[in-house]
């Protein structure tokens, strides 16, 4: 059974190009890198490192990740609830960023994702099906705008 606690990792470049991937089980659903904790006691940074490697083929260290100190609680879509224990209806998602010096070509697992795109942050946010993902990418744009102010 899946644990109802997950991470969302927004991978981006200094130019604010954001990597999004298309779900294999729902074509047209674009998202950042996401995944649930493997065990209840798995540290969130370890979950991020594992998910980035599993979903993109990229090996990163926990020290490269930025904890944006944002969490979202949301209702799990009914068509995905069978993955969780009976009665679990909500997930808590913790948001992290990963700034890379340049774009890279991810090695996607075709069972999870079928395509990828690098988009400017606004376009990436608009392409995401999840409101939490879109909000997190917009937060990236606002954070960068505030740094420059």
Structure description:
With 149 residues, this protein is of the alpha+beta class. The protein has one domain: Nucleoside Triphosphate Pyrophosphohydrolase (Alpha-Beta Complex). 26% of the residues lie in helices and 34% in strands. The protein is globular and about 45 Å long.
The residue-averaged pLDDT reads: 93
Total beta-strand segments: 7
In the CATH scheme, the class would be Alpha Beta
Quick one: overall form? Answer: globular
User: What is the share of helical residues?
Assistant: 25-40%
CATH topology heading: Nucleoside Triphosphate Pyrophosphohydrolase
What's the number of structural domains? 1
Low-confidence runs of at least 5 consecutive residues: none
Please give the order of strands in the largest beta sheet.
4-1-6-5
Offer a few descriptive terms:
149 residues; 26% helix; 3 helices; Nucleoside Triphosphate Pyrophosphohydrolase; four-stranded mixed β-sheet; alpha+beta; globular; three-stranded antiparallel β-sheet
């Amino acid at each position: 059974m899946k644990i109802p606690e997950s991470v969302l990792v927004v991978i981006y470049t200094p130019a604010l190009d954001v990597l999004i991937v298309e779900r294999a089980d729902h074509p047209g659903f674009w998202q950042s890198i996401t995944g649930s904790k493997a065990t209840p006691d798995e540290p969130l940074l370890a979950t991020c490192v594992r998910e980035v490697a599993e979903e993109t083929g990229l090996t990163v260290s926990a020290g490269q990740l930025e904890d944006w100190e944002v969490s979202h609680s949301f209702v799990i879509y009914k068509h995905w609830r069978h993955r969780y224990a009976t009665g679990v209806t909500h997930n808590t998602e913790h948001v992290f960023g990963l700034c890379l010096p340049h774009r890279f070509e991810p090695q996607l697992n075709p069972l999870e994702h079928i395509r990828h795109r690098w988009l400017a942050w606004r376009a990436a946010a608009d392409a995401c099906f999840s409101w939490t993902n879109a909000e997190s990418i917009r937060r990236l744009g606002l954070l960068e705008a505030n740094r420059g102010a």
